């Protein structure tokens, strides 16, 4: 959307083919792009077919990026995020989709593989005129180390990736001249007052954007909040719950935060059964309908008088939690094939005994 907002261009709604997963533009407000089969949702096939809004500062699409593939601690997805050719290819594909940049999961020195992977990604992004930024993952344990880890990590981020001497710093995402850092909270009980005091000494203090809302005593330390894929907590879990209630609550609360930056959220689904930490949580892609519904919810709450500067797509390549859009946003073909296979099987009374 960002690159095309100045033109009253109409995009024809198209469906995403799993055979040609990159033959589409994922442009917010222009078209809904799902899957090229009879299983596509009606809204996805129709598309939105309307001109792009002529906003001075349109929402830019960020996609959350997992930098750990190739590390033996994670599943094998067929590539390594330490391969420059893979990164160049991903950047080109993301750009073709209309994605502005990657927000990259990052743990500081706690995870050296991910840190090296991010350093390489920022360098390749700078060479290819693409954008990246950090999503700092808080220490998960409440063992008293969270604040020190955050201070050390942010200092490293400034020296290596953000500050005036950092290589490839031109690729780092900024908003109104300030670098953007997303915060993914865990249970570490970080003292964000101390972190904010430290980063305010930077040449350009960063914009800190927290998932959902922080503890009340630290709300003043953050410049904004972002939505994130929310899986049903019902018992038993409802895989068809695509996060409507969560998103409505998030956007409604954000209306009461007029001085904060709000980042909307869109996602295709969720399925963590491949993850070593699996809790057997699922959110069906519903043949692209989940992506479509979260996108519509974003549009419904994006106030033209106070437009959201970014929308977070969760995720580019989290195969372990089944949120990846790198391979497409619909599971249409697999569902249709499964249905056809079931239809071809003889009824139970005609099946031969084993």
Description of the molecule:
The chain has 354 residues and is an alpha/beta fold. The protein has a single domain, classed as Alpha-Beta Barrel (TIM Barrel), CATH 3.20.20.80. 27% of the residues lie in helices and 15% in strands. The chain has eight helices and eleven strands. It has helices at 42-46, 84-97, 112-127, 146-162, 192-199, 244-254, 289-301, 332-344, and strands at 60-65, 99-106, 131-137, 174-175, 178-184, 207-211, 224-226, 261-266, 270-271, 282-283, 310-313. It has an eight-stranded parallel barrel with strand order 1-2-3-5-6-7-8-11, surrounded by five helices. The chain has a two-stranded antiparallel ribbon with strand order 9-10. It is globular, with a radius of gyration of 21 Å.
Low-confidence stretches: 1-57, 346-354
Beta content: 5-15%
- CATH architecture level-2 label: Alpha-Beta Barrel
Assigned CATH superfamily: Glycosidases
Structural class: alpha/beta
**CATH fold assignment:** TIM Barrel
**What CATH first level would be assigned?**
Alpha Beta
The number of domains is: 1
The spatial strand order of the largest sheet comes to 1-2-3-5-6-7-8-11
Major sheet size, sense and barrel closure: 8 strands, parallel, barrel
Order of helices and strands: HEHEHEHEEHEEHEEEHEH
* Radius of gyration, in angstroms, nearest whole number: 21 Å
Helix fraction bin:
25-40%
Which term fits the overall shape?
globular
């Amino acid at each position: 959307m960002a690159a095309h907002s100045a033109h009253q261009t109409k995009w024809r709604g198209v469906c995403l083919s799993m055979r040609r997963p990159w033959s589409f533009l994922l442009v917010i407000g222009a078209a809904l792009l799902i899957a090229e089969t009879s299983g596509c949702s009606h809204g996805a096939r129709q598309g939105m077919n309307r001109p792009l809004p002529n906003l001075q500062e349109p929402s830019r699409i960020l996609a959350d990026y997992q930098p750990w593939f190739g590390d033996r601690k994670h599943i094998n997805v067929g590539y390594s995020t330490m391969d420059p050719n893979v990164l160049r290819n991903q950047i080109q594909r993301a750009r073709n989709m209309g994605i502005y940049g990657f927000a990259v999961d990052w743990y500081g020195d706690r995870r050296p593989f991910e840190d090296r992977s991010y350093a390489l990604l920022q360098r390749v992004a700078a060479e290819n005129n693409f954008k990246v930024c950090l999503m700092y993952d808080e220490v998960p344990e409440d063992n008293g180390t969270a604040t020190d880890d955050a201070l050390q990590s942010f200092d490293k981020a400034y020296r290596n990736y953000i500050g005036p001497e950092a290589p490839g710093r031109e690729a780092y995402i900024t908003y109104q001249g300030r670098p953007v850092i997303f915060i993914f909270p865990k249970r570490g009980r970080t003292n964000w007052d101390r972190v904010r005091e430290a980063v305010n000494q930077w040449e350009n203090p960063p914009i800190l954007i927290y998932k959902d809302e922080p503890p009340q005593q630290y709300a003043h330390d953050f410049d904004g909040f972002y939505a994130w894929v929310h899986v049903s907590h019902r018992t038993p879990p409802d895989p068809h719950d695509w996060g409507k209630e969560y998103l409505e609550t998030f956007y409604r609360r954000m209306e009461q935060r007029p001085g904060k930056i709000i980042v909307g959220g869109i996602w295709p689904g969720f399925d963590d059964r491949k993850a070593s930490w699996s809790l057997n949580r699922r959110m069906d892609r519903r043949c692209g309908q989940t992506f479509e519904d979260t996108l519509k919810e974003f549009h419904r709450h994006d106030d033209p008088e106070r437009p959201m500067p970014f929308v977070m797509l969760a995720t580019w390549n989290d195969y372990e939690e089944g949120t990846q859009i790198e391979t497409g946003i619909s599971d249409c073909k697999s569902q249709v094939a499964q249905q056809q296979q079931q239809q071809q099987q003889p009824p139970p009374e005609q099946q031969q005994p084993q």
